[in-house]
Design brief:
binds S-adenosylmethionine; globular; 2 domains; alpha/beta; Rossmann fold
Length: 480
């Protein structure tokens, strides 16, 4: 070997191979599992994938890992555990409060699946009326799970006599008193079948906000048939890219055409670059928006004027605070028929973790583009405290109800976010606030906006479950 090569070989560090401490999966399969939405497979594959991700076949001491499946209603025979020891329990919704694992002397389970699918309206009633029973059931699940182990909740929204009840959010919110809420995966089905939520919980203390008691929700008939959409937005132009987070016009057009007639007024209290207005004008509606940032309001005016052509008097952009939205809408744009909007996702654009790991944010910094909306104190993206953020936002949406007739729909596009390892379910908490006792809205269903055009990142690979959250909630609420 030549001297230079020998010197290089002696100083080269030994190649480190990443150890997979969580499961026996290939890195490719791991990465695919991190995507927060997926096409729902049959039960056997669904269970198999979960068991494969959340357990190794053998524990460090050489014993076979143990998996518990607890199902409501009928036992699902398709389940098998790929070489792990499988235990099964069935519990009826009315017995949830009394359920305890029967054996007194047992090794804790390594992974638990609680399958609440198919529990129907009985479970919705149980959760709404008997929250203590559900908490007790979850405490019992925690008691048989090893420290640090994962438990997943499978559930779907259920049809009740009043309307569609968001069972998955209620279960996962109640679970926060017992487990740490990690995040969720959404199993999409064809046509208008309700998606399956896979809520991931971990047996470690919670480090985010916990609800003492959940309110009784006002629910109604779904506003929109689509349970999920995957728009293919065209790349953003030079002006649009200046804004850190716009939504695609294609998404909004779907809602506008389904929920309003031609000539109707569409409103957005946090209009950003004017996407709502562009979508409304493209479908022959009128548009009015409010936006706090002067740069964004200016960009919106330019974009909307281009889209409107000679359709003068059909749009209006107000530069101001959405807290005063009702006063900022000119008389010619009242009443509003439909409101659609996306708020800042709390202070997520300030999250230092995100700036390091998110290539979009890093690339924006490198190009000198803004990574937050503004420095203004009035900007909802700069509110420090999470509960204060939810309260402020809810009061803005209450003002929107002042300019809409009963029965009109407000669609809020948002996401459940992670911040410093805790989960902040903005979507659920907003609905609980706006549609709870005394709230001015009723919950009328969710359409998931699934972002298939964003690359996957290998967060936590080999060490921990950290998903890529690529689904946004489009929450449809009806004015009561
Ligand atoms: C997620 S962005 C909306 C983007 C918009 N949907 C689009 O497609 O361009 C949220 C917007 O809310 C604005 N905003 C934050 N606080 C506000 C407030 N108090 N009043 C009005 N707008 C506000 C921000 O400036 C930002 O443009």
């Amino acid at each position: 070997m030549p001297t230079a090569q020998r010197a290089a070989a002696s100083t080269a560090k030994p190649k480190r191979t990443l150890e997979n401490r969580v499961n026996d999966m290939s890195w490719r399969d791991w990465l695919l599992f991190q995507k927060s939405f997926f096409a729902l497979p049959g039960d056997e594959v669904l269970y198999g994938d979960l068991v494969q991700f959340f357990t190794k076949r053998l524990a460090p001491d050489g014993r076979t890992n143990r998996v518990m499946a607890i199902t409501v209603s009928d036992w699902r025979p398709a389940i098998e555990a790929h070489g792990r020891m499988l235990f099964r329990e069935t519990v009826a919704p009315q017995d949830i409060g009394r359920w305890r694992y029967g054996e007194t002397d047992f090794t804790p389970f390594d992974f638990i699946v609680v399958d609440m699918r198919g529990s129907g309206a009985a479970m919705a009633e149980q959760v709404a009326a008997q929250q203590g029973d559900v908490r007790r059931f979850l405490d019992n699940c925690r008691a048989i799970l090893k420290e640090g182990g994962f438990c997943v909740l499978l559930s779907q929204e259920v049809e009740t006599a009043a309307g569609r009840f968001p069972l998955p959010w209620m279960l996962a919110s109640l679970a926060r008193g017992t487990f740490r809420l990690r995040d969720e995966r959404i199993g999409l089905q064809a046509d208008d079948a309700a998606p399956v939520y896979v809520n991931v919980l971990q047996a470690i203390p919670e480090n985010g906000p916990v609800h003492e008691a959940l309110p009784t929700l006002h629910v109604g008939a779904p506003a929109i048939r689509e349970q999920w959409v995957k728009p293919r937005p065209k790349p953003r132009n030079k002006k649009e890219i200046l804004h850190p987070a716009k939504f695609p016009e294609e998404l909004i057009q779907t809602f506008v055409t389904e929920l309003t007639d031609k000539g109707a007024v569409v409103f957005d209290p946090m209009g950003g670059t004017g996407s709502t207005a562009v979508a409304a004008l493209a479908t022959d509606r009128k548009a009015v928006i409010v936006e706090l940032g002067d740069t964004w309001a200016e960009i919106a005016r330019g974009r909307i004027a281009d889209a409107a052509g000679d359709a003068r008097g059909r749009w209006h952009v107000a530069h101001g605070d959405a807290r005063k939205a009702a006063k900022l809408i000119p008389a010619a744009f009242r009443p509003v028929s439909y409101t659609v909007t996306s708020p800042p996702y709390w202070r997520i654009l300030h999250n230092p973790g995100m700036h390091v790991s998110d290539e979009g944010q890093k690339a924006r910094q490198a190009k000198g583009l803004r990574t937050t909306y503004s420095e203004s104190k009035a900007d909802l993206g700069n509110v420090q405290d999470y509960q204060h953020f939810i309260d402020e936002l809810a009061s803005i949406y209450d003002c929107c109800a002042d300019v809409m007739a009963p029965g009109c729909v407000l669609t809020i596009v948002t996401k459940n976010v992670k911040y410093e390892r805790a989960q902040y379910p903005i979507a659920w908490d907003l609905v609980l606030k706006l549609c709870g006792e005394g709230g001015r809205f009723e919950y009328a269903g969710t359409t998931f906006w699934c972002q298939d055009d964003v690359g996957l990142k290998p967060f936590g690979m080999g060490c921990d479950w950290i998903s890529n959250i690529l689904h946004n909630y489009c929450l449809h609420l009806r004015v009561r």
